[in-house]
Amino acid sequence: MRDSISYFLDLSDNEPLFYGTTRRVYRHPHDPALLVKVPSRQEEERRHANRPAWKRRFKPTGIANITNLREMAEIMRLNPEALPCPPHIFSFIGLVATSYGWGQIVKAERDENGSYAPTLESIAQDSSRYEKPLQEFIAWVKTAPIVLIDLEPWNCVLAERNGKQQIVLIDGMGEKTIIPLRTYFPSLNNKKNARQIAQFFNSLELVKQGKTPARRRA
To answer: How sure is the predictor about 42, in pLDDT bands with cuts at 50, 70 and 90?
Structure first.
């Protein structure tokens, strides 16, 4: 039986802990320190149905795993030494076959109380809590070679790492094009990352005002 194979995770009886735009996040059934991100087939099919006919031809269904693969490639590029806790980005463990398709195993980020680290979206009103860690995170973004494609308050968490609070990016990174131009041309990447930073602060301000950013509704 497939579910008896050690590298296969049966998540069919588990409820997702978190829901992302294109993925669902589950607690790893054998290790509470880990999470498993799996593509949402329903969301993929919904987006596919809403695309123009010509675009559906070039973006068929069944490509939901691209997000996991894109992030994996970016993590490996940024962390070639495979450090267990790379600064400001989530800790990637590996890929695994699950009952919902291929899953990405990551280390669960925790807060100072041992609970799952909150997103900046969820604590936006309490700016004193994350002001300094956010300054450090933005300073890192401006100098790091990371390729940002969706820097938003809901894609960042305030985690406790080695006794210090740190903003950790848990989604929204990696090249989306076949030719990795942003990786090849740092000046281009810096310009696009600057736009991502501006977008981030615009979204954060809207969340503080109790509004839902348009990108969040997409």
So the answer is: low
